[in-house]
Amino acid sequence: xxxxxxxxxxxxxxxxxxxxxxxxxxxxxxxxxxxxxxxxxxxxxxxxxxxxxxxxxxxxxxxxxxxxxxxxxxxxxxxxxxxxxxxxxxxxxxxxxxxxxxxxxxxxxxxxxxxxxxxxxxxxxxxxxxxxxxx
Length: 135
Prior knowledge:
Helix content: 40-55%
CATH class: Alpha Beta
Number of strands: 4
Strand content: 15-25%
């Protein structure tokens, strides 16, 4: 009878130990788990931002193809409608053109088609070009 009680206590101890062991492992790796979760969340946010930029690029390209993009449109209106460009640089010695802004499809990489928007000194759209560096 004493052996049965000792065995039952031993068995109870083993069961409780086994039940709490996974919780201890989880707590000891909580930092790593939370880091992986935040990494996954940030990747989802980055993908959503890339999708949004891709849609804005497609909208700009479609407006150029359909003739909806008009000269003398203010720079502020262009940025509002199509988002921030990939880069902008001042143009020196280019006559009426004072700044050129580049739009690229973010999913295409560096060898994808790009759209160059040229602005004059009054920050109005002067001209645009569609270039394909892969050709």
